Amino acid sequence: MKQRIQAALRYYKSHIWIEITASVLLISAVLLLIFYFYLRSQYYRHLISETEKSDEVVLSAASNSLNNQFSGQLHIGGEIAVNNELYDAVHSASGDPSQMTPAVQRRLKNELSRISHYSDDIAALAVVTKDGLLYEYGRYWNANGLPELWSGENLEVLNEIYDAIMQNISTHKTGHYQVMTKPAWREALPQMNVYHIGFPLIGTYSSLSRVEAVIVVTYRMENIARTSALLSDDIPDYTDRYLTDDRGTIIFHSNSGCIGLSETDYLSSAKADVVTKPLAYFDWNVNIAIDRQAILQKVDSIYSKSALVFMLAIIAAFSVWAILLRSILRPIDTVKRAMENIEQGKQEKVEIRGEHEVWLLAAEYNRMLDALRERDETVQKEYREKEIMSERRIQAERTALESQINAHFIFNTLNAINYNVLDSGDTETAGLIKRLSNILRYTLSQKTEVTIGSEFDMALQYLYLQKYRLMDKFDYEIDFQEEYGEWPCCKLFLQPFIENAIVHGFEAMDSGGMIRVNGYEEHGRFCVVLEDNGRGMTGEEQAYVKDSLRGKVSLELSPENRGIAIRNVLMRARMFFGPDFDAELESEPGKGTKFTFLLPIPENSGTEEREGN
Amino acid sequence: MRMFVAEDEQRSREGLCRLLSSLPGNHELVGQASNGSAALELILQLKPDVVFTDIRMPIMDGISLIASVRSHHLKTEFVITSGYADFEYARQGITLDVADYLIKPVTREDVLRVLERVERRMNGNKANAQGSRLRNKYPDAHPTILKSLDILENAYAGKLNQRDLAAELGVSPEYFSYLFSRNIGMTFSEFLRRLRVEKAQEMYAAGECPKQEVPYAVGFSDAKYFAQVFKSVTGESPAEYLKSRNLK
What we know:
Helices cover about 55% and strands about 15% of the residues of chain A. Chain A has helices spanning about 1-15, 15-80, 85-95, 100-115, 155-170, 220-225, 265-270, 290-345, 355-425, 425-445, 450-470, 495-505, 540-550, 565-575; strands at about 120-130, 130-140, 180, 195-200, 215-220, 240-245, 250-255, 275-280, 285-290, 450, 475-480, 490, 515-520, 525-530, 580-590, 590-600. In chain A, strand 8 (about 275-280) and strand 9 (about 285-290) form a beta hairpin. Chain A is rod-shaped and about 200 Å long. The two termini of chain A are about 65 Å apart. The longest helix of chain B is centred in the middle third of the chain and has 19 residues, at about 110-125. By secondary structure, chain B is of the alpha/beta class. The relative contact order of chain B is 0.07. Chain B is elongated, with a radius of gyration of 24 Å. Chain B has helices at about 10-20, 35-45, 60-70, 85-95, 110-125, 145-155, 160-170, 175-185, 190-205, 215, 225-235, 240-245; strands at about 1-5, 30-35, 50-55, 75-80, 100-105. Chains A and B meet through helix 9 and helix 10 of A and helix 1, helix 8 and helix 9 of B.
């Protein structure tokens, strides 16, 4: 588990796309959250204001509709009040239901049945006299054999209505009807919500003073509620529409459980805001309660659903983004892998599969690889050359070693001969012996680094001996700035050129040859000029030597094996002096040959340090 | 000068003896030996001024001979005669403080030159006390460098740079720098820094020059830079140096 976490961490640290994706994801999540809360509060406020506006409209529509219906009901009440047939029938019943003849009963029933069809809203009709209930007609129950509405405690209500109307008549109050909201429903039909309006039964040719009975019309509440949109299927669930009567009691509510409660109790339990509009009749009010808590919950539920959708969308978008990013970064990965391969020794080029910047980087990498390979080859070539040279040097050293075995013999013998010569007073021969042994010693010594002074000394002795041998064939001049005697030089640097001049340059001459060797400082380098007036070099020979002068190492030998000594000494010199060594050849057939060398001071001589003060 | 020859080859020995005997001046050959141990015995007995010895000899070789004589605290000078002077001998010769090398075959001029040098050495040893000059510290240096040391000794208090000095001595600055570090063992600027600090120390000790003037008196144009150089050379700042030596 720990290893897995570490591996994941490593992957995270080594892959930039994860970091980019994660940070962008985080930023957008935060922005989204801010946006989400802002939108939610805005929507909530909007919803409340919209609800309030629409409720105003609903209220005014509902109150208009209710007013119209109530006005219609009062109109029906007026017609009933002046119904002669009913008046007569009631009058003939003379107030006592038990004394009523079947004929009168039939007459009353017929008339009431007829009246009940004035409106679908009428649920029942009852006739009340000063003695109480005279006759009751239930549109929904008499026929079905259900018990009557007006019985028991309800009779009290009926009498209340009668008394109130009689009171109204005697006090000449305008509008003789009386509205009663109790009982609100029948025990046997709890779903049927009702209210009652009582009217005095006057007749056409009678007067108010002769009113004997009151007719109570029972209306079905849900019918008028439905018509006036108090009861509707499209009411939002966070609003409640209801009716209250003059005493503040809820007389209709979409939730029938609330009917009969006092409005104040209801509102305190529901914690809702109320908009109210009074009706034109009965002192009733139509109300709409808005439950803010419910609105908030609704908004929340909408937004939590949408947040889920949002999150899914973001995750989807970022999956796409991550895939895209990875594909963009793939060339970097490819380059990285290629570089890792290099560390393991495999040099593989990156396959270029696009044109954007990162692929350009990969192309640059390929170019670098090419350059690297080229340099590798150069280094290897140089190494091979050096190997060959060191082999040659070892060969030369071995030869020198073999000679060294005899060196003591040679020098001691020469020494003994020398004493003999000295005894006989021949100083010239002694000088020759001395020079010869000096040259031998210098040649055989193991030292590779010598000085300009010893090189010129060596050249001088060599020229002296050659001149002694060849006599008139040539002459020489040698000169150099003595104070530069300690300038470092590679051993046996001058001798091969001098030998070349004598052996090849003066080959066909018997006399008149001239060799000049000059050494002087020039711009921080020591300049050595070797000049002869011999036969010069042919073009082919010059080309061969010039190749060597330019530092080009050809490993083949020249056709006649000539100039090999010169080429070898140039190779040695280049190794000894480094890149600042310069050599130049001027030669003209028949006129002579001139070599010019510029010898630098090898590094590590302290020249790099500059004056501090 | 009393001379002695140690050489195993008879012809060489006799040849050298004849050559030495024929020299003009106050030179006297006091003895000869054909091997190292015989030579040692005679040298201890005869106490010559200078011994010419071969390296390769039977019984005791030249190097051992020199070491043995040195162990007896004789002020004998040695000249190695060798046919084939290679590096190892030269190195041992230096540690044994050999006066010179005589390379075979030996010529009359060689011998005279060597004897002159030996004589100078002997006189030099007697009068060693006066060798306080800067150049005497580097007897084997190139003449150009010796000249430069003379100049340095007189002019360290002024403006000095390698380029001008090289020009004055007639060599290129690169070559001068090369020669200098080869002969002296450090770069010119390092040498000059040390010389100036050394002179400053002498001045502090002498106490004739005011302390604040010392940096300028030894060729620095900035006292702060002087302090820096002083510390890098001696490991102490000038103030610490003065304090540690109770110089106020």
